[in-house]
Design goal:
By secondary structure, the protein is mainly alpha-helical. It is built from 10 helices and 2 strands. It has a two-stranded antiparallel sheet. α2 crosses α5, α4 packs antiparallel against α5 and α6 packs across α9. One of its GO terms (molecular function) is heme binding.
Amino acid sequence: MAKISRKHRSTGRRSPLATVALLAIGLLTTGGAYALATTTATAESQAAAANEQLIEEGKKLFAANCASCHGLNLEGSKEGPALVGVGALAVDFQVGTGRMPMAFQGPQAARKAPQFTQDQIDAMAAYVASSGPGPALPDERFLEATGDAAKGAELFRINCAMCHNVAGAGGALTEGKWAPQLKGLDARYIYGAMVTGPQAMPVFNDLNISPEEKRDIITYLDYVSENPSVGGFDLGSLGPVSEGLFIWIFGLGGLVAITVWLTARSN
């Protein structure tokens, strides 16, 4: 019995290697947690520094190219509106489409080739966005033409076709303004226009038209741009004005020419 008891006590003892293993596991766990926390803090610090640098670069670009109209502190002037709180999306749309800086004062800023690179536009957008909360750039998934084109067509007819034409060909508005054509336009600018409401366009925020519905509209416009008119030559998709003019000039003109030819032949 004594031998059995001693054997039981000897096998129940903790091995010295177990203590070493526990210490090693504890050190590895503590070290790993510290390294992870340090890496995260470093990454956040680097991201914040990069963002500050981007904002500073945007501030310099804004002061050199935009402040004469919009003010050094985005407060606006008689020549241009205040930009506090308009968000990065408004800057991306206006500068990315070349509407800003304006070539000349007029009823509406015309679209032209952009004067800045995308990196410079991003910097100015970051500076303006730092002034206050505003619409940010959308998630890329809402810019892909993968939505419901049929639903997008219905939404476009209800909300947009009265100005832009059902085919997105654009049209004239009052007081010298116009609705631009939308065929072949970059999806980010279509989305930006709906959210920010530039020029005479109303604002369609997410309560009016959800991001998913905006994607449906983008899908419809992409379909219209990529597919030819099923009715043949679309005459610019401008509707009865261009069609009537075509019939008046070529249709009636052709009838007159045939009448003259028949009369001359009979004589």
